[in-house]
């Protein structure tokens, strides 16, 4: 199946494969799903999915390197990730 995911910032071939494995096969699907929901799918398949992956997804959707996400957004993503770690 053809995918345009790895053509976008922060998404390499490995993350593209993982996204496709959980049913997200295009960038439009990723945008519609959102970073948190996409991460939940990834984490269900791989409990070791990390905060950096979540940030990479969010940055990809925003069209920026995940390192350049605004501090407030990074804090929100970190809080979301920590909440998942507790459950």
Q: Write down the domain tally.
A: 1
Task: Kindly provide the name of the CATH class.
Answer: Mainly Alpha
| The CATH homology group name | 5' to 3' exonuclease, C-terminal subdomain
Distance between the termini: 34 Å
| Number of β-strand runs | 0
CATH topology: DNA polymerase, domain 1
- What does the largest sheet look like? none
**Number of H- or I-type helical stretches:** 5
Shape: globular
Mean of pLDDT:
96
Derived structural class: mainly alpha
Q: What share of residues is helical?
A: 55-70%
What percentage of amino acids are in beta strands? Answer: under 5%
Which blocks of ≥5 consecutive residues have pLDDT under 50?
A: none
Measured on Cα atoms, how large is the radius of gyration? 12 Å
Helix-strand string? HHHHH
- CATH architectural grouping: Orthogonal Bundle
């Amino acid at each position: 199946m053809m995918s345009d995911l790895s053509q976008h910032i922060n998404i390499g071939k490995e993350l593209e494969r993982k996204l496709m494995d959980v049913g997200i096969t295009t960038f439009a699907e990723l945008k519609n799903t959102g970073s948190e929901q996409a991460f939940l799918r990834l984490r269900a398949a791989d409990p070791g999915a990390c905060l950096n992956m979540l940030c990479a997804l969010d940055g990809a959707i925003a069209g920026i390197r995940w390192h350049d996400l605004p501090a407030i957004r990074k804090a929100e993503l970190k809080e979301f990730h920590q909440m998942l770690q507790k459950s």
